[in-house]
Amino acid sequence: MTDQRVFALIPPVDTILKQPSLQQTIAALGREPVKLAIRAEVDILRRAMASAAAEYLSLSREVVAERVAEAAVTRIGLEFKPLFRPVFNLTGTVIHTNLGRSRLPDSAIAAMAIAAGEAVDLEYNLETGKRGDRDSHLEALICELTGAEAATVVNNNAAAVVLLLNTLALGQEVIISRGELVEIGGAFRIPDVMESAGAKLREVGTTNRTHARDFEAALSPQTALVMKVHASNYEIRGFTSAVPEAELAAIAHGANIPFVSDLGSGCLVDMARFGLPPEPTVRATVEAGADLVTFSGDKLLGGPQSGIIVGRADLIKRIKENPLKRALRVDKTVLAGLLSVLQLYRDPESLPQRLPLLADLTRSVDDIEKAVQRVLPVVREAVGEEFVTDGLDCKSQIGSGALPLELMPSRAIAISLRSGQSDAALTELAATLRALPKPIIGRLSDGSLILDLRCLRDEQGFCEQLRSL
Ligand SMILES: *Cc1c(COP(=O)(O)O)cnc(C)c1O
């Protein structure tokens, strides 16, 4: 039988609200969420009292109030924690889609913060005082960097492809090689995208070989477009043949229809100049005769999530007039960040210093090895004698489907099992590192946890995390 007197120890919610320890939280978040948290904690306390009244009877009302207040502060801290946790990306995949792709340069972050915090001339022409166009801020620069006539920006490259197809091929056929019916992570499959955009897929050729005559034979009055999709995340090797872009453009133009190319991770400069594997540039694709080119703003370009469509002015105009454009448009912060990143491309030479993505991609093995030497003792100490911890040659990959077979030599710290130890110890260690306040994310491979240090920039923060283990 619960001693009913114990419940009288719980002060009313409004009294608990006056506890000094709650005032900071109330000032920051308002009274209502704090009240809810207090009620939730009072319920928990009532249940605890009902089952063990004796433990509480000696407490004062003041102490009970303070305990509830403290529990409410903890509860609210959990409820109001920021959406995202910053993590150390030591997976060896530089553009990691699940980890938010690229880190942005400080200039872009500053531009995004201004756009977020103020009213801006997003769609307002300051000269005329009339309505403006949100794309106008970037269009000239995108055209300068790609050689295209016109450009528009949408939510991501997937949106760019959907919008393009829906505008130019609704209810009509799009000819595409069977070798390019790709699936990109996250259920983006070209055949499904076609269908949802309202276009009819007309596949030609075979998986490994497609010829000009295949495209020519497929042309009909129903054909709206000839399309090429960059095989971003796989490669067909061996007995293969694909039709070069210039030839596809000629075939399409011979039939009076546009040739469009989805580059996926389009590059604005030749990556080979930085010692990276070559990727087709947007400019080269435009020069080869593509009437429209779509590419991502946050793959190799290194900007915020966005998709860019460039090409013929008349086609871009039609795309912008499609009501779907409104549904797929980007917000002011993204436009501000993207413009800021694009501005860096005006001086390609300094890109590796100024664009974090390129800094990571072009980081030398020597430099990464120095990082390994600096942090290795700390890692060793933190994980303990249970494991063998050592430097290791490894390969990083660009990620996001870009150049999947081109791996960049890198250096890692490998944490391996001592012989006879069970794999569980390693998965447990990986889980422990993921549970740190700033999680450390590596990759498990062949009985080792590999921490590729290519993307480690905050060594001090990393060591602090490990020391807290
Ligand atoms: C990545 C990719 C897409 C999708 O781009 P998102 O910006 O991720 O939406 C579309 N097409 C190709 C060829 C890609 O590689």
TrEMBL record:
One Pfam family linked to the record: SelA
Lineage top rank: taxon: Bacteria
InterPro entries referenced in this protein's UniProt entry, alphabetically: PyrdxlP-dep_Trfase, PyrdxlP-dep_Trfase_major, SelA-like, SelA_trans, SelA_trans_N_dom
**Localization annotation:** Cytoplasm
Tell me its cofactors. pyridoxal 5'-phosphate
Major subcellular location class: cytoplasm
- Per UniProt, residues of the L-seryl-tRNA selenium transferase N-terminal domain are 7-46
Gene assigned in the entry: selA
Instruction: Please give the pathway this protein is involved in.
Output: Aminoacyl-tRNA biosynthesis; selenocysteinyl-tRNA(Sec) biosynthesis; selenocysteinyl-tRNA(Sec) from L-seryl-tRNA(Sec) (bacterial route): step 1/1
Q: Give the record's family classification.
A: Belongs to the SelA family.
* Keywords on record: Cytoplasm, Protein biosynthesis, Pyridoxal phosphate, Selenium, Transferase
Give the enzyme's EC designation: 2.9.1.1
GO MF terms, alphabetically ordered: L-seryl-tRNA(Sec) selenium transferase activity
General function of this protein? Converts seryl-tRNA(Sec) to selenocysteinyl-tRNA(Sec) required for selenoprotein biosynthesis.
Q: What processes does the entry annotate via GO biological process terms? A: conversion of seryl-tRNAsec to selenocys-tRNAsec; selenocysteine incorporation
Q: Which reaction does it catalyse?
A: L-seryl-tRNA(Sec) + selenophosphate + H(+) = L-selenocysteinyl-tRNA(Sec) + phosphate
Species of provenance: OM182 bacterium BACL3 MAG-120619-bin3
Specify the protein name: L-seryl-tRNA(Sec) selenium transferase
- Gene Ontology CC: cytoplasm
